[in-house]
């Protein structure tokens, strides 16, 4: 089969790799029908995630069909159409028993495309299949479902729930990429008074407006002043960091009100300064986290009922064998307008990129 293989910072290729097979009784083998590319994959290619070894197939989100299962798998069988979660869960360790699957200590957590071969391939081996794949309702198509493997549960759990968004809140989302947009969409479920989106790209700010952000701000034009003007100088109740660079995190800490919450979702590759000389007196709560995907069944039900705007985030579609082109389009989002790129779903006309 073929897969998208990481060979070191700045080096990856769609190439022949060994077919996966059942290695443990809890494994499932999935024929991949649709995958997407995550910002975390770009961090890996930049060298920000040194745990990823050269030779690893990337990717941690997919929809596909079960083709083989180990002898201990009980919840799915060959022929089932499933969502492959970005998090694998052993189901036995202390963290799994608390539904904190992202912190699994039994061999799970974020392992696909990180510690073991991932989903950006024609087939993928999924450990702990009973808790790590989800049968899909027929009402949810592949293109919508694949966005529930990571970005929607991540935005909802690590951003909205960790940030404790409540009715009447002012919510600021810094970074209107796919995660930030999913945070806007799921924050609306809690009826905040207003949502402010902050980004440098006009196309992403427009997407944020369409998803329900009532105010948008260019990150280069002092958005903290806009927040102050909207809140009589208090600041936002909840600020969600969805970029992963020091400047965006520090901006979030300047925008939050006393007693408010900063929910960091972004993957950081460099240290950020925590200005405790300003924050120590403000009763601010700062949370970090890796998604647990405990909300995935709920989000699947909501998607089946048409309550999540998943398809609005998909801007580009490719066949699997155009993985390298899809990565280029996604990595150059400022030029291409890419939000989510889906491979294996409906194909879209793509304008060729100018030379980098």
Automatic annotation (TrEMBL):
InterPro entries: ADH-like_C, ADH-like_N, ADH_Zn_CS, ER, GroES-like_sf, NAD(P)-bd_dom_sf
Obligatory cofactor(s): Zn(2+)
Keyword Zinc-finger on entry: no
SMART domains, alphabetized: PKS_ER
Residue stretches making up the Enoyl reductase (ER) domain: 8-343
Keyword terms: Metal-binding, Oxidoreductase, Zinc
Gene Ontology molecular function, alphabetical: oxidoreductase activity; zinc ion binding
UniProt record similarity statement: Belongs to the zinc-containing alcohol dehydrogenase family.
Protein name, UniProt field: Zinc-dependent alcohol dehydrogenase family protein
């Amino acid at each position: 089969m073929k897969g998208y293989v990481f060979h070191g910072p700045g080096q990856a290729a769609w190439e022949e790799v060994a077919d996966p097979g059942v290695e443990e009784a809890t494994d499932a083998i999935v024929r991949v029908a649709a995958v997407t590319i995550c910002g975390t994959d770009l961090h890996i290619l930049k060298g920000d995630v040194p745990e990823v070894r050269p030779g690893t197939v990337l990717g941690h989100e997919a929809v596909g069909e079960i083709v083989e299962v180990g002898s201990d798998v009980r919840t799915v069988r060959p022929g089932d159409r499933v969502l492959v979660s970005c998090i694998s869960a052993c189901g036995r360790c202390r963290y799994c028993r608390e539904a904190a699957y992202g912190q699994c200590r039994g061999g799970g957590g974020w392992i696909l495309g990180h510690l073991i071969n991932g989903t950006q391939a024609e087939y993928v081996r999924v450990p702990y299949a009973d808790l790590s794949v989800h049968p899909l309702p027929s009402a949810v198509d592949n293109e919508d479902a694949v966005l529930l493997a990571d970005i929607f549960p991540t935005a909802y759990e690590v951003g909205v729930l960790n940030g404790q968004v409540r009715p009447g809140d002012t919510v600021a989302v810094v970074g209107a990429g796919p995660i930030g947009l999913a945070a806007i969409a799921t924050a609306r479920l809690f009826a905040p008074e207003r949502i402010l989106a902050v980004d440098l790209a006009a196309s992403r700010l427009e997407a944020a407006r369409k998803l329900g952000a009532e105010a948008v701000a260019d990150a280069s034009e002092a958005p903290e002043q806009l927040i102050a003007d909207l809140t009589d100088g208090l600041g936002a109740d909840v600020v969600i960091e969805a970029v992963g660079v020091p400047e965006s995190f520090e901006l979030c800490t300047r925008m939050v009100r006393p007693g408010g919450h900063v929910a960091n979702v972004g993957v950081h590759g460099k240290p950020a300064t925590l200005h405790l000389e300003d924050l120590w007196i403000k009763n601010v709560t700062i949370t970090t986290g890796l998604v647990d995907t405990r909300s995935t069944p709920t989000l699947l039900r909501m998607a089946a009922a048409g309550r999540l705007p998943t398809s609005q985030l998909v801007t580009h579609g490719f066949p699997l064998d155009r993985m390298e082109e899809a990565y280029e389009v996604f990595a150059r989002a400022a030029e291409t307008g890419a939000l989510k790129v889906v491979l294996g779903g409906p194909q879209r006309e793509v304008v060729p990129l100018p030379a980098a």
